[in-house]
Structures are given as structure tokens and as C-alpha cells.
Amino acid sequence: MRETNKVFHLAIPCKDLDETVDFYEKLGCKLARRYDDRVTFDFFGDQVVCHLSPDNIDDEPKMYPRHYGVTFLDKDEYNQALEFAISKDLPFFGKPMVRFKNRKEEHLTFFLIDPANNLLEFKYYHDNSMVY
């Protein structure tokens, strides 16, 4: 069980620090630190570090096997995030969709793509027992 004294940490590649900061700040993430080779964000309460690594960018990103994001426990918060992404004209990777329709694990989801082709998934399960 997660406790409030723990923060998840994720490190990902980026190709340009300025465009990375612009994207994540538009998304609503707070820039915590910036160095010559990386930037660190408060990503919805967790830590995402984007390391300058232009030679490690996926040319043709796919949803699977690699992406990360936020699972909302409240449908209104999911809908607000979707509307926010649309209003900020953030780049979507495909259209918002329903996954596993009519199954217990059915969920709403949308993907964004950052400037380094990292995919971010935002989702909401109708049945919260399916979150884990």
C-alpha cells in the first residue's frame, strides 16, 4: 500500500530540455530542478526526470510495451484532465477510447505524446478494484 511518505520516481529520455519543459509545464507539472543534462518535474505527485539523451528516442513509438501515466480514481478528474489536454492543445497519440468494453476491467483512456515520443496514458476504471 502506498503511504504519503513515498514518491514514485521515473527517468525517461528527452531530446531537448526547452521543449520538454514547455510540454510538461503545459500539462500542469511543476518544474522542480533543471541542470544542463536533465530536468525534474513534480508529475501529479510523483517524480519524473527527463534526461537529455537524443540518441535514445523512439522514432516510431507504440503504446506497448512502454508508456507511463496516471490512473484516476475519480471519473470527474479524468474528464477534467481530458478537457485540459484538449484546451491546451497537447499532442494526443490516437483518440480517447474505451478499453475492454463490457468487461470488469473496462476503462476510459487517452494517450499524450511528449516531444521525445514518450507516451503518457491517463485512465479511469469504472470498477476501482481493477486499478491494480
Automatic annotation (TrEMBL):
<dbReference type="InterPro" id="IPR029068">
    <property type="entry name" value="Glyas_Bleomycin-R_OHBP_Dase"/>
</dbReference>
<protein>
    <submittedName>
        <fullName>Glyoxalase</fullName>
    </submittedName>
</protein>
<dbReference type="Pfam" id="PF00903">
    <property type="entry name" value="Glyoxalase"/>
</dbReference>
<feature type="domain" description="VOC">
    <location>
        <begin position="6"/>
        <end position="125"/>
    </location>
</feature>
<dbReference type="InterPro" id="IPR037523">
    <property type="entry name" value="VOC_core"/>
</dbReference>
<dbReference type="InterPro" id="IPR004360">
    <property type="entry name" value="Glyas_Fos-R_dOase_dom"/>
</dbReference>
